[in-house]
Amino acid sequence: MKILITGGAGFIGSHVVRLFVNKYPSYQIYNLDKLTYAGNLANLTDVEDRENYTFLKGDIVDAVFVEDIFSEHKFDAVIHLAAESHVDRSIADPLAFVQTNVIGTVNLLNTAKKHWAENLQNHLFYHISTDEVYGSLGEDGLFTEETPYDPRSPYSASKASSDHFVRAWFHTYGLPIKISNCSNNYGPNHFPEKLIPLAINNIKNERPVPVYGKGENVRDWLYVLDHARAIDVIFHKGKVGDTYNIGGVNEWKNLDLIELLCDQMDQKLGREQGHSRNLITFVKDRAGHDLRYAIDSSKLMDELGWKPSVTFEEGLSKTVDWYLENTEWLENVTSGHYRDYYEEQYTNR
Ligand code: NAD
Ligand code: DAU
């Protein structure tokens, strides 16, 4: 089987690529990535020379490029993760999110439909989405697969739009699709603009840790390898046309989470308990900041047998250890040197 994974140089995509390359040696895995600021091929050094792995540098918005790679490689399936993913950036530059998340997705759908027309049923377009499409919860309740869409940031509006387009290609053209909507991921290789890796980096360097508003917003955190395992299960066993919610059953108020992180890091760095909590700095709130996300994953758990493999305390501890050990990765990302990796390692191959 030939699988095109888009966005495989990013945070979640790199874990999905690694899992598929290692677990399924008979599959050919193609990683299509534009290498935006969020794409980092150093996330994949351990699999880059494997025979069942190929990197394709390109833009999902570029119709000619996407047509060419479908013609050349004759993919059986697509797992689509490429996206602009950061809410704060979407508030500053919404159009980039429309381009990649909406137009890029429609471009992939159109090309897949065209190339798979003669035997659609033997193919699959699996779209990776977010719980943010469902909007914001109050104190109670959980997002289910039936929760009406109510996106409220430019990022979530672009992801909701892409979900609608994927379902439209299923209903209108019969393209076999699956969609999953996941809660907040954390773990190794997370770009340090997002809350947890940003806080780890700042605590390590004794810099202020910015907490938006009063730190009362709630997120449901899932270890990234558990998301990759869920994607594997849904890809192989999920029902065509269906949606699956993925979450950690693990709600944390931002401030509580940052305090836990400070305490874990004080212990690991041999600092006096309470030391790093002094770095917490309340800053201006995010515009339109969604109060609470929480996922009901019972469909995925009951029908497909998936469940998270680590508790939050374990996952967070492993994540902190990874950042403390992989200082070169973090330094290359924060200095911008990671952007040279493609030129240095790939252009003379
Ligand atoms: P990320 O920002 O770390 O990675 C995105 C990847 O897509 C990068 O490698 C980037 O270079 C690539 N990319 C961006 N625009 C592209 C384009 N036009 N053409 C080709 N490649 C392009 O994102 P992530 O956090 O790994 O998220 C991956 C997917 O999972 C996204 O679709 C996101 O919406 C979804 N998701 C993320 C989370 C989360 O907590 N991070 C949770 C649920 C769903
Ligand atoms: O819910 C899934 C989504 O989770 C994904 O679809 C997105 O791609 C991913 O980026 C993430 O979105 P969030 O906006 O929830 O993640 P972020 O890490 O940016 O913020 C987490 C919470 O922490 C949120 O309430 C905002 C807050 N925050 C964030 C940053 C960067 C802070 O308080 N301080 C910060 O510096």
UniProtKB/TrEMBL annotation:
Gene3D superfamilies named in the record: NAD(P)-binding Rossmann-like Domain, UDP-galactose 4-epimerase, domain 1
NAD(P)-binding domain mapped to chain residues: 4-319
Record-level Gene Ontology MF annotations: dTDP-glucose 4,6-dehydratase activity
Reaction catalysis annotation: dTDP-alpha-D-glucose = dTDP-4-dehydro-6-deoxy-alpha-D-glucose + H2O
Keyword Lyase: yes
GO biological process entries: nucleotide-sugar metabolic process
Cofactor(s) this protein requires: NAD(+)
Domain of life: Bacteria
Class of this enzyme: lyase
Assigned EC number: 4.2.1.46
Keyword tags: Lyase, NAD
UniProt record similarity statement: Belongs to the NAD(P)-dependent epimerase/dehydratase family. dTDP-glucose dehydratase subfamily.
UniProt protein name: dTDP-glucose 4,6-dehydratase
Provenance organism: Pontibacter cellulosilyticus
